[in-house]
Queue: 4 jobs
Job 1
Amino acid sequence: MYTRFCIYFLADFTVNLIGYCINPILPIFADSDGNLPSWLRWFQTYDDTLDGKEPRFIEATSWLRTDGVAKNFICQYVLRVMWLYRNNAYGFAYSVLGGTAPFRTLSEEGTNPSDRAPAIEGSYLRIFDDAEGVQYFQYKLVKDRGNGKCYEASIGWKPSGQFVVRWTPFRAFNG
């Protein structure tokens, strides 16, 4: 499981580098609904278009929108590029490196600190497997950094099965 993680990490890192380089041109290939063609789906989220309907994203980009819709073609392009950077190579992490549900939890240690908004300090390790017995893990760590913010790290596989290696110093913290 940990060897597979290391190999997947290298693949994820490589595809993410490619994504960071090509994200500005990807919206050119999107259809009118905001979907990339199948040959570019590794760079799109599996559950949304490039127009990103996630409420926090919509709120953070409200200056480019009127009534939740992009103000014009330029704003739509900028929003799509921002969405791609926010979710870089998301489809690859989910469809190529991800696990297949349903999952069964084998063990859990700690309290899942970052499923709360705002987050609380702590660490969490979950080991789980799929129907074929392939094992996965998820490790999360939240550490107070002062000023109402915290460091948050998440590595392994999300409960959805998506492969994840993420670190952020910007999470709201409830210490």
Note: DSSP finds four helices and seven strands in the chain.
Job 2
Amino acid sequence: MNIHANVLNTTAADSFLDNIRKDVLKITGDALKENSIHNVASSYATQDPATKKMLNSAMTYAEESLQRYNVLIEGPSGTGKELIARILAHKRKPLKAMNMAGLTDTLFQSELFGYMPGAFTGAKSRGDVGFLRAVGKGTAFLDEIGELPLSHQAKLLRVLQDKTVLPVGAVDPVPIQCRFVFATNRDLLKMVKEGSFREDLYFRINELGLKTFSLKDRGVQEIRCVASAIIEEENWTPIGEREHFGDETFSFGNVRALRNLLLKRELGEIELPEYDKGE
């Protein structure tokens, strides 16, 4: 089920973003805490119409009336998917994250669903409630969902359908209350066609969909806009009027790479090219 949100007016959007800026450091998602302020500062700065529309949609999806729907965030690495998860969790905290890549079958079940005392060798004597129950009524951010093996996909689908988990070693399922947000840099529809991602799971996690865009695709002016926001946040040397980002300087297109480039510029390790005086 896809719901198309109306674009918020500028005043409402600015007010909402100001509140998120104040709250972002209070979010209890430890896995997303590092570098959060840099992601927020750089991703909020945008002149790109498609990105503004996506941010407004994310703000709408954060409203209470839509919190019962799962959200899928698709886009290249380093394009602010963690930021979008924070927006979605603005009214549904805490926000906690788990990366789906590399989870073995045992770890997938014990980490997400929890386990009973003595369920396996090395288990805690008191057991563990697991990630999804620990989130409580907050937001569970499952990153790199496209890396989830087919064997795990069926188990996750059951959780999303029933809103329960079965801890390892337990007989009876336990209810969960969290909202789900998923993210991927993979083409899940292509994976569905290839048979490596379940179609029923795809539509279950993609009840509401958002797409992020690389800086490269958003254009040179957008790169300059985001760079200026990063520099202001870090209190670095402002970009000169004649400095510019040419293809030879910036060809990868994600925010983390741009920040690293600006850090090297600030340390004097590189210089941005300058326009000729006659240009």
Note: The chain is about 45% helix and 10% strand.
Job 3
Amino acid sequence: MHPIFEQALAPWTPPAPPVTLATGRVVVHTRQPNGSQLAIPTPGPYAMTPAEWAEYKGARDDTK
């Protein structure tokens, strides 16, 4: 079976929980139609500073 069909038929998993950064911004995760998750920092611009990105990656790595 083609991988795109396997992905479409895979069981649904809820999005990851929000991550609160030291700057006060909260990164929320939304499910996308293709099954992936999009991490959106709020409030403010979608772009994260290098420090925010490093903190977010560290927080996500701790949850695995």
Note: The radius of gyration is 14 Å.
Job 4
Amino acid sequence: MKSMRVRDQEIIQKRVVETITENGLKNTTKFIKDKKLKELKEFQKRHKSLIRLQDKIDSLKKDFEIAEKRLAEDVNSFNHQNFKNSKSSTSKYDSNCTTKVGLKYSYRGGYDYNESGRVDYPGGVSIVYTPDNCLYAEIRDELALETMSSDFNAKELIAKFVKRFGKWINA
């Protein structure tokens, strides 16, 4: 007897699997529709309920994102109206409002770095004041000029510089 070609084996194998799959689906469908139709309808009903719930969640999420962005923009406007040089801004990628002076807003919180290292901060609206970096240079230069002579009182210098450089910067 002549041996079967590989391609013939593949064709026969494919047709056997297709027939078994067809028969299996037909028998499974008959069993469920004849004996388990109630359960099938209940599962379909629950699935439709999940779809409606997901649609509500998606709608609420869109409403949330709009409200969150609006809050960040309102905080930003507040800073610009009440503090000159606030350098307040919002990002088009997230709903945060960052500033050096005034109110800072972040829904989720985050972290920042300062001279001491990483600082974590919680979400929400918080009051901030961070002097410009140039303030350090101005104080350093004035301090050098004031202390050229050896006669100075440290407490008096601190009070004098706080008064001179510590003017609150509202509009």
Note: The longest helix spans residues 37-82.
